[in-house]
């Protein structure tokens, strides 16, 4: 990042003021959101277009006396974050496609060991080195299914700089509450965009911390849960001497292969998320009430959709938008409602149909779902979206 | 030297080996590496002490046992045979189960457990 | 420091974990487990302040048996998790147990960078010259010409010298021992754990089930007798001619020097950052 090293002091101080309006980059807002949510450990590795987060953290963490480390690769970065989280820190790492691919194994570890953690993936063109400085939305299904083995996933996707801040706070809160890694799936455009943001005052933010054991160490059964299905997590080195493993484990944390212990383990891993679907599904609606054609979109593409809705209505096309802030678990109920009673639905996205496939899956004959894919390293324009309207209307 | 301990003829404190067959995997390290050669394998492969008096109490058998199945302490006059410390880590039922298993194993005919000579090619 | 009795091991083994452990009869990992626990007890460390971290492989199963905080991580990545734990809570004693494949193949990059960074960790690298858990495939330390299940006609690659590698990469303390030299192993582990900075102990341990069987080295007893013959104390090693060094290796402390640790140098950055921020 070019700017930012000159007067970091003033910036941070301003951030704490109530209702402070600031011009921020998406990556900066995400970093500020992390700090506001209590992030006190960062490990990362440079990669375009996510490096600004790593740089921001390298400036802010030492000031707060917290650890920042640039590791030897992304595998090490997420490994360090899992370790720090087990020792009680709120940890985050930030990367883009190639690094996110490297992180997948340890992301699975964080899931099975139920470690709170936030992983930022700023999407760029892929696969492989792809289009490092161009926007894309090709990692949507990877964020869901990237690590091996069946598992739940929580993925948030911002479309504006202020959503970068808000969703990052929510990402940390969700990770801590559910004891699970959460993926913050931004894209190059949103991450590098500069917009006015009204930052909330510190006291106005709800910050959730993980539930720690309250019983004496001798009574602590690491993976025994109450009705919430979310076990309490003891920090390493606090007298609760327990075992953490990537193997399927029993309530005490020891590896097991007994079907009568394995089955409940997986049931709980999925259940702790699926039981709280309602709290996780975030969507925004724009002019949806009387819309004849609904646009369903997310990330930077949702920005074009908002403009298309406005322009379309000026021209007499009754457009509406359902913007997905939560990509996974897929907000099925909101999408079903948005699809019902429409002439058609258009799903514009910067991939070959990763979310439109999901929309078609939940559509179940309600309406006609059309995908609008673009993969040339540039954004979908409002005019392109309106151009597709002629096919529909 | 502690006065109330039993001593050997040479006046050294008399050591006391304690074996815990429930954990022993019969690897033979203790027998092979005893510097004074006072441990032998019994016909089932478990270690046995043959010449108490010569034991120097070096503890090598204990440290080279990968399974924590031997401890070397000192014999006290009139002391009862205390349980191996490992038994404290097993619950009473498990200890019983394991010692039953060890007993069952020891009922297998020695021929079946005898090592098969390696064929030289 | 008062000497603790060997039987202290039983106080440190996990009471709710089933024994006997998973390893093959005669496996050196059990000997190392005992040695590690004795060194910790001897050093007077508090169980609550010790964290054992391991990767994947036979060695990965070691921490679960010790009554401390234990983290069994992914293959080759134990050092990265340990780095996070240590940075998050510098007061903890973080000890990492890895195998040769774990530490020098898949985790080779993490090993040299951990040594370079000199974070206050102890890395115990159990070198059995093979991948034991997966059935005896060749590892980066398998000697040239040796047989492995993936080198049925003899291994075609030269091997890593783990100790030399970590010395060069900048570790504060590097020692080598074998599970046969168990009293020396206790000392080496004790010194490495006490050392400020990145400490490495390479522990040669027999895998008679795979490496020994494929290379006709006999049981673990024969393999450990082999260590007795091949291992030379480092002071004697230095006086030996290259011809005498053939087929032998030095044991003992191979490097021991003072270097600033990562936590010390990072504290410098913290101080500077806070001073700058105060000035505004």
* Morphology call of chain A: globular
Q: Supply the number of structural domains of chain A.
A: 2
What is the radius of gyration of chain A? 21 Å
How many β strands of chain A by DSSP?
Answer: 16
- Mind telling me the CATH class of the largest domain in chain A? Alpha Beta
Q: From the 3D structure, determine the CATH topology of chain C.
A: Rossmann fold
Q: Examine the coordinates and then state which fold CATH places here, giving the name of the CATH topology of the largest domain in chain A.
A: Rossmann fold
Overall pLDDT level of chain A: 94
Order of helices and strands of chain A: HEHEHEHEHEEHEHEHEEHHEEHEEHEHEH
Let me know the largest β-sheet of chain C: 8 strands, mixed
The topology string of helices and strands of chain C comes to HHEEHEHHEEEHEHEHHEHHEH
Q: What characteristic shape of chain C results from the CA principal axes?
A: globular
In DSSP terms (H or I, runs of 4 or more residues), the helix count of chain A works out at 14
Separation of termini of chain C? Answer: 49 Å
Proportion of residues in extended strands of chain C: 15-25%
> Helix/strand/pairing class of chain A, anyone?
alpha/beta
> Count of DSSP E strands of chain C?
10
Percent of residues in helices of chain A comes to 25-40%
Measured distance between first and last alpha carbons of chain A:
45 Å
Please characterize this protein's 3D structure.
The complex is a heterotrimer of chains A (393), B (121) and C (280). Helices cover 39% and strands 21% of the residues of chain A. Chain A is an alpha/beta fold. Chain A folds into 2 domains: 9-204, Thiamin diphosphate (ThDP)-binding fold, Pyr/PP domains (Rossmann fold); 284-392, Rossmann fold (3-Layer(aba) Sandwich), CATH 3.40.50. In chain A, helix 2 packs parallel to helix 3, helix 4 (74-86) runs parallel beside helix 5 and helix 11 (299-314) packs across helix 14 (382-392). Chain B is of the alpha+beta class and 121 residues long. Chain B has a single domain (15-108), classed as Alpha-Beta Plaits. Chain B has 4 helices and 4 strands; from the N terminus they run E-H-E-E-H-E-H-H. Chain B has helices at residues 29-33, 60-64, 92-106, 110-113, and strands at 15-19, 39-41, 47-49, 70-74. In chain B, the strands form 2 sheets. Chain B has a two-stranded antiparallel ribbon. In chain B, strand 2 (39-41) and strand 3 form a beta hairpin. Chain B starts with 14 loop residues before the first strand and ends in an 8-residue tail after the last helix. Mean pLDDT of chain B is 76; it is low at 108-121. By secondary structure, chain C is of the alpha/beta class. Chain C has a single domain (6-279), classed as Rossmann fold. Helix content of chain C is 40%, strand content 18%. Chains A and C meet through helix 1, helix 3, helix 4, helix 5 and strand 10 of A and strand 2, helix 3, helix 5 and helix 12 of C.
């Amino acid at each position: 990042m070019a700017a930012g090293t000159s007067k970091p002091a003033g910036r941070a101080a301003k951030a704490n003021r109530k209702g402070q309006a600031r011009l921020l980059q998406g990556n900066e807002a995400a970093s500020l959101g992390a700090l506001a949510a209590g992030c006190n450990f960062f490990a990362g590795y440079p990669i375009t277009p996510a490096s600004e987060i790593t740089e921001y953290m390298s400036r802010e963490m030492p000031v707060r006396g917290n650890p920042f480390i640039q590791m030897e690769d992304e595998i090490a970065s997420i490994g360090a974050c899992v370790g720090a989280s087990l020792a009680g820190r709120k940890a985050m790492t930030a990367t883009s496609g190639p690094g996110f691919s490297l992180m997948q194994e340890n992301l699975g570890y964080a899931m099975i060991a139920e470690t709170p953690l936030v992983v930022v993936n700023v999407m760029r063109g892929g696969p492989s080195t792809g289009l490092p400085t161009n926007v894309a939305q090709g990692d949507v299904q990877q964020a869901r299914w990237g690590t091996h083995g069946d598992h739940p996933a929580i993925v948030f996707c911002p479309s504006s700089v202020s959503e970068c801040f808000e969703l990052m706070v929510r990402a940390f809160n969700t990770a801590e509450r559910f004891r699970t890694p959460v993926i913050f799936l931004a894209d190059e455009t949103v991450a590098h965009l500069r917009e006015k943001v009204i930052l909330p005052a510190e006291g106005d933010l709800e910050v959730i911390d993980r539930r720690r054991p309250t019983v004496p160490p001798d009574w602590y059964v690491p993976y025994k849960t109450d009705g919430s299905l979310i076990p309490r997590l003891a920090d390493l080195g606090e007298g609760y001497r327990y075992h953490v493993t990537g193997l399927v484990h029993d309530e005490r944390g020891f590896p097991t292969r007994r079907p009568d212990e394995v089955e409940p383990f997986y049931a709980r891993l999925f259940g702790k998320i699926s039981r709280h679907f309602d709290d996780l599904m975030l969507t925004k609606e724009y002019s949806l009430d009387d819309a004849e054609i609904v646009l369903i979109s997310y990330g930077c593409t949702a920005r074009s959709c908002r403009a298309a809705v406005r322009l379309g209505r000026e021209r007499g096309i009754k457009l509406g938008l359902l913007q997905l802030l939560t990509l996974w678990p897929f907000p099925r109920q909101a999408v079903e409602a948005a699809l019902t009673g429409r002439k058609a639905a258009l799903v514009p996205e910067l991939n070959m149909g990763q979310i439109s496939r999901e929309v078609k899956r939940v559509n179940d004959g309600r309406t006609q779902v059309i995908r609008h894919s673009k993969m040339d390293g540039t954004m979908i324009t409002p005019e392109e979206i309106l151009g597709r309207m002629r096919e529909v209307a | 030297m502690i006065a109330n301990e039993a001593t050997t003829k040479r006046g050294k404190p008399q050591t006391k080996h304690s074996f815990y067959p429930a954990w022993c995997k019969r690897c033979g390290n203790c027998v092979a590496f005893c510097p004074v050669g006072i441990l032998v394998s019994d016909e089932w492969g478990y270690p046995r002490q043959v010449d108490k008096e010569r034991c120097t109490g070096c503890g090598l058998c204990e440290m080279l046992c990968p399974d924590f199945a031997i401890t070397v302490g000192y014999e006290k006059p009139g002391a009862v045979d205390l349980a191996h410390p490992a038994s404290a880590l097993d619950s009473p039922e498990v200890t019983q189960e394991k010692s039953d298993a060890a007993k069952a194993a020891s009922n297998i005919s020695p021929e079946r457990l005898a090592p098969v000579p390696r064929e030289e090619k | 420091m008062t000497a603790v009795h060997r039987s202290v091991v039983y106080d440190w083994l996990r009471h709710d974990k089933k024994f006997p452990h998973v390893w093959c009869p005669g496996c050196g990992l059990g000997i190392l487990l005992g040695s590690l626990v004795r060194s910790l007890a001897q050093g007077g460390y508090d169980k609550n302040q010790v964290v054992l971290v391991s990767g994947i492989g036979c060695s990965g199963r070691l921490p679960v048996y010790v009554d401390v905080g234990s983290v069994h991580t992914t293959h080759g990545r134990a050092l990265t998790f340990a780095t996070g734990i240590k940075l998050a809570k510098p007061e903890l004693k973080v000890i990492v147990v890895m195998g040769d494949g774990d530490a020098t193949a898949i985790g080779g990059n993490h090993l040299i960078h951990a040594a370079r960074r000199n974070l206050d960790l102890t890395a115990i690298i159990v070198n059995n010259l093979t991948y034991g858990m997966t059935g005896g495939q060749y590892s980066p330390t398998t000697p040239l010409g040796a047989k492995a299940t993936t080198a049925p006609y003899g291994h075609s690659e030269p091997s890593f010298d783990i100790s030399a590698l970590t010395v060069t990469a900048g570790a504060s303390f590097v020692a080598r021992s074998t599970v046969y030299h168990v009293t020396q192993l206790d000392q080496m582990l004790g010194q490495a754990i006490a050392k400020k900075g990145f400490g490495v102990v390479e522990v040669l341990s027999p895998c008679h089930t795979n490496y020994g069987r494929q290379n006709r080295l006999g049981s673990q007893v024969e393999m450990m007798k082999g260590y007795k013959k091949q291992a030379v104390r480092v002071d004697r090693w230095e006086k030996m001619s290259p011809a005498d060094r053939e087929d032998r290796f030095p044991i003992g402390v191979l490097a021991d020097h003072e270097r600033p640790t990562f936590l010390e140098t990072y504290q410098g950055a913290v101080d500077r950052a806070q001073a700058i921020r105060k000035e505004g």
